Amino acid sequence: SGWIALGVSKNRQMVDTDVTLGFIDANNELQIRDGYNTGYSPPVTDSDQSQLTNTRGSRVDGVTTVEFSRACRSTDSSDFSMTDSDNYLIFGTGPVFNGLFISYHSIRPTITTETVMFDCGSSRKRRQAPVPVAETAGTPIHPMDCSDLVIGTARNDVFRMYDAYTRDRSTPFPDSVYGGEDNLIAAVGRETPTGFTEFKFRRRLDTMSAFDHPLVNGRQYFIYAHGQEQNNYHFRLRTGIHVPTASDRQFYKDDELKYHGFTRNRGSRVVDLTKSKTAMPDLPGFSYGCEEGNANRCMYKVTWVVDTLLKVVNFTLSTTAVDSWIGLGVSKNKFMPSTDVILAWIDATGQTVITDRFASGYFPPQLDMDQSQIMDARGGSVGGLSTFQFSRPCSSSDQSDFSLSDKDNYLAYPMGSLTPDKSFFTKHTLPPSFSDETITFDCTATATGKPEYANTAEPEPEHTAEPEPEHTAEPEPEHTAEPEPEHT
């Protein structure tokens, strides 16, 4: 028996797909789940399964049938609305192991060539957007008035991120305070070991909320800001914390939502999110055994991109070999002993395995005790091509790793077969190739400390600076308490 699935996608790709998957288990009972594909791996089951109703299924004469109902507009933020006009449908199927565990699709999923919209006979209308309140009404609108915001704070790997709105220059509140809702579909954030705070989030282009501005085609105005660091304040005028009688000289505490300061900690850009990116040159890397006319399908291929902001190198490994592992080594002498190695494969359950190891001799590389230097690891197999991606710091904190920024590194390109149960790797099928010359990953090139934007930004408008209050004391904003968002 096998599983069958229906996906809803915005981009005709497996990544970022809303999936409903069902199968008949070993007890002849229906197993159906509502999930979301964040990558080339099994869907993550939604915490809210209430959107699937009237579920039933059977397996008769070798034919599996799964039936279910779903609301045209789901209340689960992990689901796409069936009434959206930009939905593609994906049809997939694959095997089930031991009547319980799903594996990768047995054939490449079929995707509709055109968008499919389910007309549920309803007409949604956008609510009227709020207008500035009395303190700004009647005066020229300020760049911060009526702003749709996403706000985040992080401590190490713990973070909070929420959908917010500000009616004027007072402290922004979560949308729920004004009667809206948090429309972030997914979010992640952290403080990096290199001293940066970074966030990623996902939101629909148009949430139909009065407190979310739609992301439209063409040029759009964006503002950004970050909080002030203690004892590193930026004001145009003297404030209350500068006077000798200040009651709290640590008014601006870590991770508290307060005034961002003047000029240095804020800015704006006019960006066209739909504008095509400039064609990228071929990425540096190495490959062999590529199919004729298709440089992306090779027996072995590795490419990399150096992120000078985060001080990491992002690697992509791929292979067309079946039931095989693929690796990348860093060596000082072009021999297997004393080689820092990363190995990757897909096990019997369809899960991606990426490990950091060290080869101290002519025997299987031993697993490093510290696996934290392999970051953002993911992988999958589609159409006979297995692809793995991961990041690694330019300078690792693990003594078993070589620094990628060293100038005496050679790269090794090994691969080989897996054991029959795909739980472990065997000896490489051929002696690994090594780079002819040393390869240095320059993590300092163009490192300005500022992010590099994929889209071309236009000059900042003339009136974007937020003037300092004329008074010299810095009173607390009208709303200084930062309420917890509904979805933390």
Structure overview:
This protein has strands at 2-9, 17-24, 30-37, 44-45, 52-60, 63-70, 88-97, 101-102, 110-111, 147-155, 158-166, 173-174, 184-191, 197-203, 219-225, 266-272, 285-291, 294-307, 312-319, 324-331, 339-346, 352-359, 366-367, 375-382, 385-393, 410-413, 415-418, 425-428, 433-434. With 488 residues, the protein is mostly beta strands. The strands form 7 sheets. Strands 20, 21, 22, 23, 26, 27, 28 and 29 form an 8-stranded antiparallel beta sheet that branches. Strands 1, 2, 3, 4, 7, 8 and 9 form a 7-stranded antiparallel beta sheet that branches. A 5-stranded antiparallel beta sheet has the order 17-18-19-25-24, with no helix packed on it.
Short summary:
The protein is mainly β. The protein has strands spanning 2-9, 17-24, 30-37, 44-45, 52-60, 63-70, 88-97, 101-102, 110-111, 147-155, 158-166, 173-174, 184-191, 197-203, 219-225, 266-272, 285-291, 294-307, 312-319, 324-331, 339-346, 352-359, 366-367, 375-382, 385-393, 410-413, 415-418, 425-428, 433-434.
Index terms:
mainly beta; 39% strand; 488 residues; 29 strands; 0% helix; 7-stranded antiparallel β-sheet; 8-stranded antiparallel β-sheet; flat
Give the CA-based shape.
flat
Order of helices and strands: EEEEEEEEEEEEEEEEEEEEEEEEEEEEE
**Structural class by sheet pairing and helices:** mainly beta
Low-pLDDT stretches are: 122-138, 446-485
Residues in β-strands, percent: 35-45%
Mean pLDDT: 78
Blueprint of the fold:
Blueprint (H helix, E strand, L loop, with lengths): L1 E8 L7 E8 L5 E8 L6 E2 L6 E9 L2 E8 L17 E10 L3 E2 L7 E2 L35 E9 L2 E9 L6 E2 L9 E8 L5 E7 L15 E7 L40 E7 L12 E7 L2 E14 L4 E8 L4 E8 L7 E8 L5 E8 L6 E2 L7 E8 L2 E9 L16 E4 L1 E4 L6 E4 L4 E2 L54
Antiparallel strand pairs: 1-2, 1-7, 2-3, 3-4, 5-6, 7-8, 7-9, 10-11, 11-12, 13-14, 15-16, 17-18, 18-19, 19-25, 20-21, 20-26, 20-27, 21-22, 22-23, 24-25, 26-29, 27-28
